[in-house]
Design goal:
By secondary structure, the protein is α/β, with parallel strands linked by helices. It is built from 13 helices and 10 strands. It is found in: Cytoplasm.
Length: about 350
Amino acid sequence: MSGAQEGLRVVALGGGHGLHATLSALRRCPDVADVTAVVTVADDGGSSGRLRRELGLLPPGDLRMALAALAADDADGRFWSGLVQHRFGGTGALAGHAVGNLLLAALLERDGDPVRALDALGGLLGCAGRVLPMARVPLDIEAEVELDGVDGPHLIRGQVAVASTPGRVRRVWLLPEDPPACDEAVRAVLAADAVLLGPGSWFTSVLPHLLVPGLRDALLRTAAARIVLLNLSPEPGETAGFSPEQHLEVLSGHAPELRAHAVLADIGSVSLPERLHAAASDLLVPGGRVWLADVADVRAATPRHDPDALAGALLDVFRAAVPAAGTGGGDGTQQHSPQRGRSPQWP
């Protein structure tokens, strides 16, 4: 663990709006000195999908959103953050593209190095942290889906298709199946004091991090406190009808060896706390716990986290879980008895 004066090193894994919420909260945590966002690279829709298909580059949208969340909180930072988030209107070739997507695409095409491209744009934004891709190559998501009235599993390919499927997603995997992890992301996880997984689109933004072998191994080996942040509500299509405990069951099914030091959920989103505690018992390390807190923005028209409330809850979790993780021996795979080969507990 970092010294008290240095502050905590925190890595947040995810994508899209869920990761943006986590990063916005981390910026408000006085105990956090260093933030690294590790972002999914499987988006194939909208502006990101168009640039990916036309140029063969990493989809830039989720990366752009993470950079904007970490932009400097001053006049220059707010100006550049607003600019990179701006989308062109009209009906021409630029319609729907975000300025930041085009900037990242230009940097990626010119230099060919996604880490250098992200560091360059992060410098322009004055980012209070670093944004990294989970892999240096674009990935595809494929899912096994159960469709009403259809016998046998149905395969769906593509992030947008999986996220909007009318069926029940059972499991997901990546193509290529064993993509190389971004080395800088692996090093950040191994050096962290705390690693956050979620919230976000569970099958397409959260679980993919556990399907990159090098990143999954780093998550198992790190001495950091591993903290799972649950969504405020199920998402139409992808996790329609899922309870909070079913999110944990799916997580364990995709990564049976993973153990967490804490699970954080919004108290208003958990109707049956005893079931969540029971589901978390197989995931948590000895001494780990479920934290319930008011972290939802009650003023929002759609479910979203309140960054100040989430920051306060994370501080409580950090102060309890990080010291405990730091005394556990430094290797998550040795602090518990992994249930190798067990059958996934699907909802």
